[in-house]
Write a structure and sequence with these properties.
mainly alpha, elongated, 153 residues, Ferritin
Amino acid sequence: MKIFKLIFFYLIVNFSALAIGIWLMNNGSTSDWYISLVRAPWEPDGWVFGFAWTFLMICFAVYLAKLSTLTNSRKIIAAVLVQYFLNIIWNYLFFNQHDIILGLIDISLLTFVVTFILFKNLPTMKYYSILILPYFIWLLIATSLNLYIAIYN
């Protein structure tokens, strides 16, 4: 029963972070600024982002809930908090402030933090680590999209 309460808790936290990020992104991908950018040819259609983030945050909630039952490391808690901050602030930097380079630095740091969480907990989480892999892969793609925009704009 404890695991379900933790999953529910992390779902609220994850989707709250997404909501704050959306709120901070101004008009986001529909803004004239973003539409005018030279973007990567492998950029997915807009609906993919909503679907992907929903799926990723559900998987990440289950991952964090399981991790919470197995460890109480302050390093992990700190890394997860940093992950939330970096995830939220990227929307503001990139879409609201149009700062492509700071956005790239932020998303690179976010990718590093999620990589740290994944590999630091691999021995503990074992096959549950598959739940964080989609997030990790998505961040690699998102980082490449941001890098492409930084190079070509």
